[in-house]
């Protein structure tokens, strides 16, 4: 039987000098599953995403991604593993402002040989993959050469999604990526993101306060349901 994409067991994490923020007995995300994760501000959602990428390590327990325990890897190997297998869409998109749309989308392929190979295999070349993704996400081809700081918010979001998806990482993590959009654009963007994740066979872990989006996902979960360290008002 295939193991889940993500498996957490007995995870405990506290920021230095603070009480325990996360105490998660178990959590799994299946291959190809889309999960909506909600929780109030400060409840630890972004911290959990950092643990899933191995950006932080837990004091207790294990995080396994693709059956690899992240704490068993050296820091450099962990960084490589993260970029090979995970695409991120951040709330502020975190595009590099002085790079073009194309250069931003292709960044993961510079850091990950695996993603460069997969992009080439699927679309003939990395440039071909970039063009195809941006077309699927509804971005006009003439924008490819434009600097990222000359894009609208909606365009930046599409570029951030293409960057997360290029080279077919098994996991796409999105941290509040729709909060800057109106309700119609939010749902339209999500449908594009779902379609691209499905085409790539990727799982999607989507963090948001916006409960109205939850029914669009395979599964919806509140962090307080997982986290024994949650304060009562977070439930
Ligand atoms: N780098 C850090 N160093 C120390 N404490 C931190 C750090 N990052 C987050 N925290 C603390 O951890 C707690 C949870 O923060 P986190 O950003 O994970 O919450 P969140 O649920 O993502 O919040 P939001 O919805 O506002 O983004 C907060 O009390 C925060 O102050």
TrEMBL record:
Entry keywords, A to Z: ATP-binding, Nucleotide-binding
GO MF assignments: ATP binding
Ranges for domain ABC transporter: 6-229
Domain of life: Bacteria
Pfam family membership, one: ABC_tran
SUPFAM superfamilies: P-loop containing nucleoside triphosphate hydrolases (SSF52540)
PROSITE patterns, sorted: ABC_TRANSPORTER_2
Keyword ATP-binding (UniProt): yes
Protein name: ATP-binding cassette domain-containing protein
Lineage summary: Bacteria, Pseudomonadati, Pseudomonadota, Gammaproteobacteria, Pseudomonadales
């Amino acid at each position: 039987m295939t193991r889940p994409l993500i498996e957490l067991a007995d995870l405990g994490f506290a920021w230095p000098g603070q009480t325990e923020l996360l105490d998660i007995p178990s959590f799994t995300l299946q291959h190809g599953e889309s999960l909506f994760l909600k929780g109030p501000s400060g409840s630890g959602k972004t911290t959990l995403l950092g643990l899933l990428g191995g950006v932080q390590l837990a004091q207790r327990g294990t995080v396994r991604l693709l059956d690899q325990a992240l704490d068993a890897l050296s820091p450099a190997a962990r960084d490589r593993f993260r970029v090979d297998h995970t695409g991120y869409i951040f709330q502020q998109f975190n595009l590099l402002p002085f790079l073009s749309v194309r250069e931003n989308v292709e960044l993961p392929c510079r850091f990950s040989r695996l993603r460069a190979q997969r992009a080439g295999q699927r679309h003939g070349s990395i440039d071909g993959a970039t063009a195809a993704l941006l077309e699927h996400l509804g971005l006009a081809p003439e924008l490819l050469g434009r600097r990222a700081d000359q894009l609208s918010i909606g365009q930046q979001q599409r570029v951030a999604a293409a960057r997360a998806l290029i080279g077919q990482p098994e996991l796409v993590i999105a941290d509040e990526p729709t909060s800057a959009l109106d309700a119609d654009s939010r749902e339209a963007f999500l449908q594009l993101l779902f379609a691209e994740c499905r085409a790539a066979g990727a799982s999607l872990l989507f963090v948001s306060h916006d409960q109205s989006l939850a029914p669009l996902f395979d599964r919806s979960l509140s962090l307080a349901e997982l986290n024994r360290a949650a304060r009562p008002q977070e439930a």
